[in-house]
Structures are given as C-alpha cells and as structure tokens.
C-alpha cells in the first residue's frame, strides 16, 4: 500500500490509553486499554489490538501522534519532580517579587532548589537597562552544581523582546554544568515575567520525568516494529517532535481536552461549534473556532501555580452519566457528586442502589442501557424534573462559553451523551459523531504543526502594516521550524493590544500560525 | 493603629481594592504578592487612622506610575522603594511619618502597604479618591488645592526626577514624559502635606474598607451564605454611604477599543430569562454610567462594580465577556466627591457625557442623598 497515509493517534490518559488507526480522513479502527504505570505496555497493548483488528501492515504506518496527561498530572500530584535553580536576569528591577512568589507551599517544597537574581534586562523598547551580569550567572551555575541541582529555569525582564539575553545565560550555565537541563522563559510564554517564569520553572521540574517517559513512548513504538516518526500533541492542538517534548514537556499539559475538541471537529467536519464532552462526573464544554479550541485570555493555574500559558477555554460543570440524583427542598438536584467509574456497579439499571443521571435517561426512554425494568418504578414527575435540570444546566454552560447569542451546532462526545435528548436553547443542531468515545485519540492523529509569537512592537516608528508583516513572518517561521510544510502555513490568530496609559505607540502583537506536518506531505 | 499580620488579610484587601476599582485601576496582584510575602516574614504594615496622625506629622503619597503592562515585567523592587523613600526624606529634610495611598481602587492600593511593610513607616488609613479614576487631578488632594509637587520620581537604576510644577496639570504632563523616558514605569513620592492637612484632604478609612469588603465577600462564601448579602450589609453600615444591587443578569454584548491610550467600551446586560429590563454600562477604563432601560441608574463619581453573580468576585472592565452571569453593584461615592468643585473635575461632563451628576439614591428612589458637609 505505497500510497496509504496510515497514522496512529494515541491518547495516554490517567485511566485509559486510547488508540485509533486512520487512513487519511477515515478511522479504520480503535482500541481502549488501561494505562499502565510504565506507560509503555499500555501503549503497546492498545496499538497491537488496533493493528491486529484492522490487519494493516506495520510498515505502512507513516506517523504516530501521542497526546498525554502524564506530565501535567505529575506536576499536580507533585510526583517525580526535580528541584530547580531559578535564575532571573532583572536586577535592579523586581527584587521585591522573587521567583516562586505566590506558589503553594507543597509545590515550593517539591520544586524550589535555589533562587538567583542577577543583573540585566530590557526596557519595553528593547533597550538594555543593565548589562547581563556574566559573573553572577557563573557563580549561580557553580553554586547550583555544588548543591547537585541539574535543572535550571532562566527568565529575564522583557526577554520576549530579545531572547538572546536568556540564551547567553544558558550558554554560561552549560559551560559550568555540562549536563544541565535548561528551560528559558522565552521558549514558553509571552509578556508577564512572573507567569512566564513560573511556566519555565514548572517545565524544568519535569525534566527527569520527560527524559524517562518520552523515550519510553519511543521504545513502545520501536517494540511494535513501527519505523515512522513520533510526535506529541501540545495544548493548542498542534504537534511537536519527541526531542522538543523532552525539552519542553509542559507544552503537552492541556493536550487531552484540546485533542477531544479537535477530534470532535474532525469527526463532524465542523470548524465552528460548541463541543461537550460528557463523562461520568463532569461535562467539559469547549468552543471550537476556525477548527481549533478557543484559548483562555487570562492567567491560568497549573497545579496551583499561575502561568500565562495558553490553554483551551473550558467550562466544567458537575453533570455526567454517574451524577447522583437527589431531592432537596422540593427541587431535584443533579450532581455534582457522582458514582463516577462505579456506575456499572452502582446505577439502578445495572442492579445497583444509587439513582444516577443514566437511570433517568433510561427511564425517560432516551437510552437503552442495563435493565429498564429496574427503573420503571420511578415517578414521571421526578424523571421530568431531572431531565429538565440536566438540560437547563447544559444550556446555561453552553451560553456562557459562547461569544454571542447566535445559535451554534453542538457536538456531543463521551459516554454521557445519552443525557441530552431534546433540542437545546442556543443550539442549532446536536451532532453525535461515530468514534466519539475515542475523539481525543483522533484529535492527536490529525494534529498540525504550529508557531506563535507574543511581542511588543513600536508601531509609531515602524507603521502598523510593517509590524503585522514582521510578526506574522516570525510566527510562520516558527511553525516551519516546528515541522510545518512551508508553503501551507496559515495564520489563524492575530491579536493587537495597544499599551494603555502611555499613548506612545507600543503595541503587543500575538500571532499563531499552523500548517500540516511537512514530513507527512 | 492596627497591623496587617496575615497573608489572608492581604488577599482580602486586594479583592476589596478591585471592588473599589470599579472596573479599572489596574490589577493589585503583583503588589499583593510582595505584601503577602512581607507579612509572612513578620514585616507587618502598620495602619494608623486619621485621628491618630499628629497635626505636624509629615505625610507623603507613595504610588507606582506608568502602564499596567510594564508592571507585569518590571515587578516591584524593594531596594528601589526604600531608595525613593530615603531620597524624599533627604529632599524634604525630614522623616516621613506616614505613607498615604493615592488611589484605593486597583493596583496602587498595595503600594503604601508594600513600602510600609519593608520600611516600618505607618500607612494612613485613607486615600485620595475612594475608588479608581484615570487622572491625577481627580484626587481629593488636588480638589482641595493640595499640590502634587514637589514630587520625586525614581526608577530602579537610580534615575531621579524632582518635579516642581506650576500647577497639577503640568505636574501630570512632566511626570508622564519623565516616566516614559525611564521605561514607562516608576515609583513616585508626591503630595507633601502635614498630618492636619492629610486629615482634611483625604477620604478616610479606605484602607480598612478594602480589608472589610474582601472579608465580607470571603466570609459570605465560606459560610454558604450569600456573599452579596454580606457585602451589602457591610457597605450600608457606613452612615454616609448607600449600596444596592441594581441589576442581576448576564452580559449579552461587549465592545472594547483603545482610544488615545485608554480602554473604552460598552457592556450590555439582560436578565437571565432573556426578557424584561436591559442594562448598559459605559466603560472609560472604569465603569462610568449604568443605564437601565435607557435611564441613568448610576453615574460617575458614584461607583459601579460588576461582580460574578455566584462568587461575588469583582470583574475588571477588560475581563467582561459575553455570557458572564453577573450582578451590578451601585455604591454611592464619598460625599466629598459630590461637591460642586469636585464634580467640575470628576463629574460626568469631565468624561464627555452631556448630563449632570445625580446621586444614585435619587436615581434609584432610595433614601435622601447624603449631602456634603462643610
């Protein structure tokens, strides 16, 4: 099959490892296995199942795309983290708000190695206000080495304007600590020193874990006999290479929900829609715009630490297939408590003793699961009230995630989709695609490569057109660098934010460009 | 006198400052981190009331000036704050007995607390506006004829500009030009005044007010009560102030634009069920007018604050977006801001509206509006 474009998409979740095998735009097969502690065997088992059931020869697989929540979960659980030396190049500015400011105590305990604040930094114009204090960087590197710290996070005031300042510091650190794992803040974030620095520190703390898990994924692929390149999914629904994932594991932290939204888009052919992933305990609602999840505009917290990392804008409500139904003060309450993954044992239709949202759906005739006879006794008034509550709550969440009142299509994925059975306000149509249960693995399989910039430009001097051209050019170059096919890169987001209060022409410009993986064309 | 000795109090104060920011004033977050860390290390800001300050004591306003987008990169330097204090004491040749807050709404609420914590100089429980407003000449200091200058502007490298201006408008223009030259962010000590003068020209009790507003919201949430009940009970406990929720609904449309360096816009709200009244809020950095069915319900300098309708978390104007469920709080300003000479500089016409100020009590048919005394 020389012309086949077989790809394998894998989603390594906390509980399940999902795999799909796709030929171009067609899903040929899928599988679900438990995630194993070593990650590798779960992947091997699931991929082998798909290859066996589809009969596709291993040699014709062209690429493997993996989304994983392993790194973000490790940080949230403070598991397997490295102590980090945080070097900030900003003195004489910023000494009142040192690195790790605002971190939860348990995260500081797990991650804070040492703090070094050294001289250097830029003004918003890009001019240096103090030269890089080379001696202080050397001293910091030597001190960290003496303390057996190998992971470094380097940040600097207004460094996105001129990343070279952090790069010079990295070179000095590596001179003194040859096996140092160094994260630069400019590799991760836009403006907002503390948030960008936090992202760099989180990333540095994941160094050891990344150098274990990413190669393990590679070995799993190798063990299966697959020779194709492996990519990992990042937060914005695009791909990075295994090397880049080893260097910047934090880029993968919100890939799970992103892949689910992207997969839903792909399976339905929609580019503008609301996507609701209805699971056992929660419903996660996202907004699909131009084929990508809309991202949050404000600060995000990862494991209690504030970052300005772009994440999909999700609204989570406590309604799922396992939500417990109760009656309080004359009203019917759905969730937020849930029997979760114990639904097949505890739900009434399965012979259990707890009234759940799934039982309501079965009794209302929306779904055929378990034994309907076990819920026949439920009074219609209770069933009607619960059905109404579920729909109203989902309607309200959909309205909150939208940007205006115009009705939009709703894509339902996840096992709990049976809870929705009537038209919803603000929704033009409800779509339930095939393969919805593995939408996240599909989202991984179809991902593109991307590049982005977030910088301050002087519009007064350069002119607006020249600034836009400059900024989009840099974003496109970054996308090509990340593996995109040079002649097929699209700019999918362009935001200009003039600086308020000063009226002097400085504008912050954010651009995101994406394109198909060149190696795959 | 009392001390701020728990990081939780600092968090409450920052949230209270956002409520009084009426949608603008900048994010207190960076300052909050500094003050909370100082408090955690035992450096407690001392708050003294206007009754406790001596007539002949020397009081200076301490503030950060420049663009909010600069603060998030420069953060705050303790060394520079102490240097500007020392420089001011050298310039005026006397010890600073108390620090004064310029604008309690937003980011500058934290600045005197920060310097107070690291220097030990007490912070006067007062400010120059009782809310947030976009210009220096809109402070009660200026309205009472207390000049901005001599002022000391300094940034972290030690560049210092001492300003002696012919009037406050010149002071603002010079400060702005010097601040841009310094990198668009600087620390400023200004409005030199005696304790007696400070008692006359400030709005009293506003530092404590941020703490109590934040505490009312937090305790309302934690007790599973209604944070709004708690908040309104607290705000209405002030004898000369009135607060009321004037709208409960969702945002159905928002426009944002940057005009001459300021954030302009408009938010339109409807009740949750879609029908009925309609509320429009005008934005000029801060929320300036709330109209219900086209009728003015609250107008600047009375305060308008938009809060999340469940948690009572205050929202800034740039955070407003379609679909948010919110309540709109109307809160009468300090009576001083309702005097004719104050309304001349910070009344509706100063913001380009072709209408006169009317107190929210009158607009909403509540109790008699509070008259300014003296």
UniProtKB/TrEMBL annotation, chain A:
Pfam families: Hydant_A_N, Hydantoinase_A. Gene3D superfamilies: 3.30.420.40. Residues 196-365 form the Hydantoinase A/oxoprolinase domain. Residues 7-176 form the Hydantoinase/oxoprolinase N-terminal domain. GO terms for molecular function: hydrolase activity. This is Hydantoinase/oxoprolinase. It comes from Rhizorhabdus wittichii (strain DSM 6014 / CCUG 31198 / JCM 15750 / NBRC 105917 / EY 4224 / RW1).
Automatic annotation (TrEMBL), chain B:
Residues 167-360 form the S-Me-THD-like C-terminal domain. Residues 9-164 form the S-Me-THD N-terminal domain. InterPro entries: S-Me-THD-like_C (IPR048350), S-Me-THD_C_sf (IPR024071), S-Me-THD_N (IPR010318), S-Me-THD_N_sf (IPR027479). It comes from the Bacteria. Pfam families: S-Me-THD_C, S-Me-THD_N. This is DUF917 domain-containing protein.
